[in-house]
Amino acid sequence: MRALFSVIFLLISMFLNGQGLHGPGYVLVIHGGAGNITPARVTPEKQVIYEAKLKEALAAGQKVLANGGAAMDAVIAAVQIMEDCPLFNSGKGAVFNAEGKNELDASVMDGRSGKAGAVAGVTIIRSPVEAARRVMDSSQHVMLSGKGAEAFAGEQGLELVDPSYFYTDESWQEYLKVKERLEQEGRKGTVGAVALDSHGNLAAATSTGGMTFKKYGRIGDSPVIGAGTYASNESCAVSCTGHGEYFIRNSVAYDVSVRMLYLGETVEQAAAYIINEKLKSQGGTGGLIAVDKNGNISMPFNTPGMFRGFVKHGAEPQVFMFR
What we know:
Elements: H1 2-16, E1 27-35, H2 44-66, H3 71-83, E2 104-110, E3 116-122, H4 128-138, E4 143-145, H5 146-155, H6 169-181, E5 191-196, E6 202-208, E7 229-231, E8 236-242, H7 244-249, H8 252-263, H9 267-282, E9 286-292, E10 297-298, E11 305-312, E12 318-322
Parallel strand pairs: 3-4
Antiparallel strand pairs: 1-5, 1-11, 2-3, 2-6, 5-6, 7-8, 8-9, 9-10, 11-12
Helix pairs in contact: 2-3, 3-4, 8-9
Keywords: Autocatalytic cleavage, Hydrolase, Protease
GO molecular function, one term: beta-aspartyl-peptidase activity
EC number: 3.4.19.5
């Protein structure tokens, strides 16, 4: 009887500490884009602002996880902080396309159920990542685009805004420079989050404004399940950022998972190989964040920098920008 009480007490203690029966407790990892992010391009003053916003995003997701909430709720909470921040290329402050308009993409995937949702080319939905979640939860589809996605978001009661909401002078000036040179030279990046909750469930979310001066209704990897976003409780949760065409061709987010499952690689081995060897050999640039079912994380990138950070149960949040 005494042994039984000891086991019960141990289980209760584990749950109270947010560990459940899965050992590592909660984990949250975020990114704010990869690219030519260097101390020379991001001033010390800007570095302080970026660090504060990354920590705010981590805190929003951590609050959900610390209270026993779901990984999906946590990644949505974290991404929405960055969607509302003009420092990043998602939501407010998203880059402009060739027509001088903001077109937004986002996706989510739930590792427990395998369900996923995405929106692409939307222009009036304040939180594209929340719209992606509604596609997953409240429709029979995986991806909706353009006017149809916006009509669906309105039916779901999501906040719709005038396109001018997404405008920031920094993004507009960047657009004018790129328009003049007809090439991309942006510093702002896609945002994303991956999480493991105290119940052992994984989730991933990604949100972006796409590529500066993109043409012809171009859609990158961010809303494509398996390319820019993927989650499975059997392996890991992944969110990507970078030159989307390469991530789509290589099914990067899904590739991390299958290398773990089929080759027995760790999340760090799989992610590092894909970003630093496979993509780099093709000329593809970018990075990703990932967390596996045991709470191990990976944040590789093959560019000068990537806005990123993580927080784990019982530890202080950490954020990084440069290599």
